Amino acid sequence: MPVPDSTSLTPAQRKAAAELLAAVTRPLDDLARLFARAGHELALVGGPVRDVFLGRPPTDFDLATDASPEQVLAITADWADATWTVGIKFGTVGLRKGDRLLEITTYRTEQYAEGSRKPEVQYGKKLEGDLARRDFTVNAMAARLPSGELVDPFGGVRDLRDKVLRTPGAAEDSFTDDPLRILRAARFAGQLGFEPTADVRAAMTELAGRLEIVSAERIRDELVKLMLSADPVGGIVLLVDTGVADRVLPEVPRLRLEADEHFRHKDVYQHSLTVLEQAIALEDRYRLKNDLVLRLAALLHDIGKPDTRSLLPDGRVAFHHHEAVGAGMVRKRLRQLRFTSPVIEDVASLVFLHLRFHGYGAGEWTDSAVRRYVRDAGPLLSRLHALTRADCTTRNKAKGARLARAYDNLEARIEELSQQEELASLRPDLDGNEIMSILGVPPGRTVGLALQHLLDLRIEHGPLGRERATQELLRWAAAGGLTVSGDDGAEPPPAG
Predict the structure, then answer these.
(1) pTM (2 d.p.)
(2) Does a cis peptide bond (omega within 30 degrees of 0) precede residue 146?
(3) Which residues are 82's β-sheet partners?
(4) How confident is the model at residue 482, as a pLDDT?
(5) Over the chain, what is the mean pLDDT?
(6) Residue 155 gets which letter from DSSP?
(7) What's the pLDDT score for residue 422?
(8) DSSP conformation letters of 352-414
């Protein structure tokens, strides 16, 4: 364990830090006095203290004490409006006072046994011992209550100032005890822009295999926090460079395709990182602040390329159908990481659609092409706009400007047709009940095929009106030799 840092702050700086912390913790003074009268300590710990020094108001109040959980419940019985004990086996008691939520955890040391996903918890009596088990020095600070006195035994303030990510003890011990800290290092690199020390990076590489004992849900949660951070690219690069990504998101490092004399192409890995950066920059434009679906799609949109790479006769490289292959790979990986079905399907759909704009060529967009583009994107249209624009990373300024103008024109056409035809709610001109009445068929597959046929006509020609739609329906039915039976068992006509 490092020698406690006693030189990072002068006495005047410590006084100023205490005053700053006390101003934030003042609403907790009554609670702190209750603990003091009972002969126990109370301190604000970890992230909330870090955030005070970063100039960010704490959103959570994580507290630590030398009192046991049972003693915490007794001390706060008349103070708290509500309590909950779901985390009591780990030493944590939850409290609500007014609209403020608190968690109070008994000082503890914890260690993960070999092969275990859950820590073995032992209670301690010293605040400094509790801080020693924290993940990084910037989270190993505390403010004693009610005085606000700073407790910083491992130089967390210094590392905040220097933007360094360091562990309180040996990085190998820290990551062995809790392998999830390996991913937290990447998350803090993205959230705070901090640079891990050499020993932290080395331990991430050496102990990446320990992540096998961590549940997929916890890994997913850390990846989500990273993707929604201010600079997810920095964290992703750290995961790739240390080999951790090979364990949790192997499709990303596989994008580093060799560029040789036979396979000439731009670096797909760097391209994907650039697309992610550009997609984030476009979020405000499309009112998609901190959009997880867009960010995942931007990072993963080309993961089908390594499996579809081929050399053309003219020497160019092609990745035929990589969008379809990539969509399947996205579904598989995100399912393994226990993402929700809506997130999985939305990300996969964006990956499948990300080349759709380029498939229409450079000519003028017809009304039917615009309608089909909007129909295929559905509720993902704004995200598809952002992803398609972000996917332009060419260094050729003239080409980039040309693509931007083409997409400007497409968006203008969508807006124009939307005002005329309500594209967002594109539907056939007849509904299912009308189709059953006109054709004299019961509910079944024929009705579904008829609806699809009328929708295709609606996309191709615009609004038909009820009379023309009826004529087209009857023509379609006659062309298919439609015969009707009571259970709709007839061979349906072709879809058009």
Answers:
(1) 0.80
(2) yes
(3) 96
(4) 66
(5) 86
(6) -
(7) 56
(8) HHTTTTGGG-SSPPPHHHHHHHHHHHGGGHHHHHHHHHHT---S-HHHHHHHHHHHHHHHHHH
Please calculate the CA angle 210-234-201 and round it to the nearest 5 degrees: 40
- Please tell me the distance from the alpha carbon of residue 207 to that of residue 455, in angstroms, as a whole number: 55
pLDDT of amino acid 110: 59
What DSSP designation does 290 have? T
Nearby residues of 394 by Cβ (< 8 Å), 6 or more positions away: 400, 403
Determine the Cα–Cα distance for residues 360 and 126; give it in Å rounded to an integer.
67
Distance, CA of 146 to CA of 44 (rounded, Å)? 10
pLDDT of residue 424: 54
Q: Output the pLDDT for position 254.
A: 93
Rounded CA separation 407/396 (Å): 17
Instruction: Tell me the pairing of strands 61-65 and 92-97.
Output: unpaired
- 8-state DSSP, 96: E
In eight-state DSSP terms, residue 1 is: -
User: Do 49 and 143 contact (CB within 8 A), yes or no?
Assistant: yes
Identify residue 142 by its one-letter amino acid code: A
d(CA 5, CA 355): 55
CA distance 121 to 457: 66
In order of 274, 381, 383, 404, 467, the CA distances from 413 in angstroms are 28, 14, 17, 14, 28
Question: CA-to-CA distance for 346 and 134, rounded, in angstroms?
Answer: 37
Q: How far apart are the first and last CA of the chain?
A: 74
Give pLDDT, residue 243: 97
Q: Minimal CA–CA distance to 265: which of 393, 127, 355? A: 393
Residues whose CB falls within 8 Å of the CB of residue 179, separated by 6 or more in sequence, listed in order: 112, 207, 210, 211, 213, 214
Q: How far apart are CA 314 and CA 127, in angstroms?
A: 69
Q: Which residues of the chain have pLDDT under 70?
A: 1-8, 110-121, 258-266, 359-364, 419-426, 481-496
Q: What is the rounded distance in angstroms from the CA atom of residue 9 to the CA atom of residue 21?
A: 15
Residue with tokens 């509904």: 431
Place of tokens 């391209």: 271
Q: Which residues contact 39 (CB under 8 A, 6 or more apart)?
A: none
Backbone angles phi, psi at 121, to 5 degrees: -105, 135
Residue 439 structure tokens: 């054709």
3-class DSSP assignment, residue 126: coil
Express each pLDDT in 202-231 by its tens digit.
999 999 999 999 999 999 999 999 999 999
Q: What is the pLDDT of residue 366?
A: 80
pLDDT at 61: 87
- Give the SS3 label for residue 446: helix
Structure token pair of residue 110: 């914890």
- Report the relative pairing of strands 195-196 and 164-165 from DSSP bridges: parallel
